[in-house]
Write a structure and sequence with these properties.
Blueprint: H1 5-11, E1 16-19, E2 52-54, E3 68-73, E4 80-87, E5 104-108, E6 116-118, E7 123-128, H2 129-147, E8 151-156, E9 160-164, H3 168-184, H4 197-208, E10 219-222, H5 227-230, E11 233-242, E12 245-252, E13 255-260, E14 281-284, H6 288-305
Helix pairs in contact: 2-3, 3-4
The structure holds zinc ion.
Zinc ion is lined by residues 74, 76-77, 79, 81, 127-128, 130-131.
Length: 306
Amino acid sequence: MAGHPALVDLRLRHASAVRSRLPVVAPSYGDSLVPRSGGSEGSAFPPPRKRADVNTRGLPFTSSVRQYRSVNTCALCGHDKQLVKSHIVPEFLYTDLYDSLHSYSVISTDPHSRKQRRKKGIYEFLLCCDCETHTARYEQYASRVFNGGTELEISDEPNYLTVGNLEYSRFKLFQMSVLWRCGVSKRPEFSATQLGPHGENLRRMLRDGRPGASHEYGCILILPASYDVTRQLVYPPESVTLEGHRCYRASLGGLWWLYVVSSHSKSFPYRQLFLSQDGFLRIPKEARWSTDFILRLGQDLKRDAL
Ligand SMILES: [Zn+2]
């Protein structure tokens, strides 16, 4: 087959939820994949400002679909209840994936997986209604952080975007809930997230509304040089080792998310990049993985398309 349609789809904004194994080849890709600085509707963050900024573009978040089925054990509270259909990755992080038909492409580096289109993100009967409502509070807040509707102090520096005035508890619990949902999901797209005993720790913290210390399941957000590509890509968490710590990295909402899932995360050398308890988050611009990762992914998809 001439060309490699999967990569073409990325460039045509038919976004991609990619699953399965880690690509391994890294060809050269050029310098055109740079983050947009002007901001626009649907961008991951409001335009960078050097002063307090009030974003008033509304709340595009839509809560999960209320579809019930028979009684089963809720993954969060552990009670046998009717479960609702819960998303794994919040719907608002798919915003840039949808085309004019409100659908997106699913491609995979697994050569045995067929390309398909979806109208919605990935859902699963996971939580009871009470627990879904409980965690939705964190997501509603995070949606306002990403899409506008809450006052943030944003400072644009050469190597960092510093976001202030974040609510530590709600934003931290939101980040933890995304990782935990990926870990408890039985969907094959999230099979690489194996949290072991950390899954139970996260469950208890989420159930009790305890965000923990900054370093406990801390998450670093990175604005990649390849933002124009990653904003069209949902890549589920995959395990990597960094500085001797087990980490999970994912691409969600255009940013890289690097979770440190380690019992000795207090000694993680880049812990100053975790959300601080006074509500500041430093977001590094670019990281060595970002462009390399996109290149490897493109090469892997190309190889499977041939
Ligand atoms: Zn529950």
